[in-house]
Amino acid sequence: xxxxxxxxxxxxxxxxxxxxxxxxxxxxxxxxxxxxxxxxxxxxxxxxxxxxxxxxxxxxxxxxxxxxxxxxxxxxxxxxxxxxxxxxxxxxxxxxxxxxxxxxxxxxxxxxxxxxxxxxxxxxxxxxxxxxxxxxxxxxxxxxxxxxxxxxxxxxxxxxxxxxxxxxxxxxxxxxxxxxxxxxxxxxxxxxxxxxxxxxxxxxxxxxxxxxxxxxxxxxxxxxxxxxxxxxxxxxxxxxxxxxxxxxxxxxxxxxxxxxxxxxxxxxxxxxxxxxxxxxxxxxxxxxxxxxxxxxxxxxxxxxxxxxxxxxxxxxxxxxxxxxxxxxxxxxxxxxxxxxxxxxxxxxxxxxxxxxxxxxxxxxxxxxxxxxxxxxxxxxxxxxxxxxxxxxxxxxxxxxxxxxxxxxxxxxxxxxxxxxxxxxxxxxxxxxxxxxxxxxxxxxxxxxxxxxxxxxxxxxxxxxxxxxxxxxxxxxxxxxxxxxxxxxxxxxxxxxxxxxxxxxxxxxxxxxxxxxxxxxxxxxx
Length: 525
Hints:
The protein is mainly alpha-helical. The chain has 21 helices and eight strands. Helices cover 38% and strands 5% of the residues. The strands form four sheets. A two-stranded antiparallel sheet has the order 1-2. A two-stranded antiparallel ribbon has the order 3-4.
């Protein structure tokens, strides 16, 4: 479920007699509800790829099958149009639908039960205001006996308690606000708990990190090595808002967390993000793996060292420190040192789009064997002072099979979502310019078209332009036989990086772009 390794949520501003008091909110319940829905990242699970906003039919991959999410628009036939507020409240905070009965805990009602009456009413007001979309919910793909919803009574008895948020009288207003955000609409622990199937209960391994849909949601407790303890408050807030952290503790959001940041956290008020961080500082630090679980890989002849030098070092540098402002460091990167290797594996196999000013990453793992990927992952996670458990079992091959990205050539080409950018591309004639383009002509073609795009009033960021150019190239080039050699992931990765160079530093004529096929020779200057 391309879902949130998330921290997104509500808006508590203070406490009086133990009751949440709200400030700086719109008095219009619809506007306030829109903000709360954005913070809760509802669109992530209730908007299908290429589908209408909140019309559902997003496929959530669960251990017991696939759940198709419901339509939240006010359509009377297929959405919430026949719901009363009381019906919605019962679903939202108690996990019981008027149409299907008990809800699977894939829906985070175990967290939403803490949301206040006022916020629940505002969310309902907003959902009733959006355009109705007639889209029937597709059938779940859940085998017997898991498709028998009455069996959920046992789960609910063991792991669910309906209760509203209660401020801590001994905590500051900021910490209480953060607790409400993190523990309520944010449902952060739904991804960041160690044990997912026990809901928001005391058995969950709170915030210690764990696997979610083939990605690893890291430890977000104040542990200094495995969690956020070594990060400053500003670093955590900046990471939540942009997907990258400044300073000497690098981190780059990938997978579902990146989606959550783009759709939700980047739009959350800074004071709310600061409150969330303040609350997380009060959570007991947790160590999710022990020193005995680690293996020494920090030697020249370690497994994975030669693979790293061949494929990775020209961008990330032999010392793992990356290229400032262009390629994130691996040394000291807490995302790299999570208990589970899943996120590192998925990034190696799937690549990354341009984000937060960083260059796109080639889906370099598509050129490697699973053994090479396993070994280089272990090397990265245990070199330059990094320490993390080694990859075990078939995790590398499982990650390859699960990785579906445009850069890897294992997913359809993306879409350009910004209307003004699409219009600029049409005006400049990007499709014609990129069709049949020879690889040796990437640079001169982009030197010509990038200034024309940037001259248009698109209000697009450099990241937007780089990713849109890569998408446009994918659409015209994916089936072009000339790109079969050396491989499509290599070719589209090369194009993306040349586009990055021309958009960010056109005067350098692509000389500073990380190589699409990294070598062990001279790193970029």
